[in-house]
Amino acid sequence: MKDRLALGLGCDRGTPAATLERAVAEALAILDAEPAQVAAVASIDLKADEVGLADWAAYHGWQPIFFSAAQLAPVQVPNPSETVRRHTGTPSVSEAAALLAAGRKGGPLLVEKHKVRDSQGKHATVSIARIIDD
């Protein structure tokens, strides 16, 4: 049985769906995983109105979960960032969102902060956590 996975996503404002698709495809490839294994997709609530994220998730039939900076900030992650904290109020978006989306029994992170920069200079970051079922 293949693992069920939770994706955590961070991106620049205006990042297109194609950039997110590339970042996620690369991150899944690291694990030799398939989109069908994705059971949760999450980001920070600042991205709830992000068109590229909404379009990308809708294409896959995924309903993103959005966490506040206050929910993400206390999550212990391997790669906190002061730059991310300055822009969002939390030291981690993708890693913390993946872990929270994986749930109480979720984890560990299988992919830490996989970063992609597209030809327009837009960044997307993907982290992947295992969802552990009872």
Which structural traits does this protein have?
globular, 5-stranded mixed β-sheet, single chain, Nucleotidyltransferase, domain 5, about 130 residues, alpha/beta
How are the elements arranged and paired?
Layout: E1 4-11, H1 17-30, E2 38-44, H2 51-60, E3 65-67, H3 69-72, H4 82-88, H5 94-102, E4 109-117, E5 123-131
Helix pairs in contact: 1-2
Shape call: globular
> What spatial order of strands do you see in the largest sheet?
3-2-1-5-4
CATH architecture: 2-Layer Sandwich
Task: Examine the coordinates and then state which fold CATH places here, giving the name of the CATH topology.
Answer: Nucleotidyltransferase, domain 5
Count of strand segments: 5
The CATH class turns out to be: Alpha Beta
CATH homologous superfamily, by name?
CobE/GbiG C-terminal domain
Terminal-residue CA separation: 14 Å
How many strands, which pairing sense, and closed or not: the largest β-sheet? 5 strands, mixed
What's the short version?
With about 130 residues, this protein is of the alpha/beta class. It contains five helices and five strands.
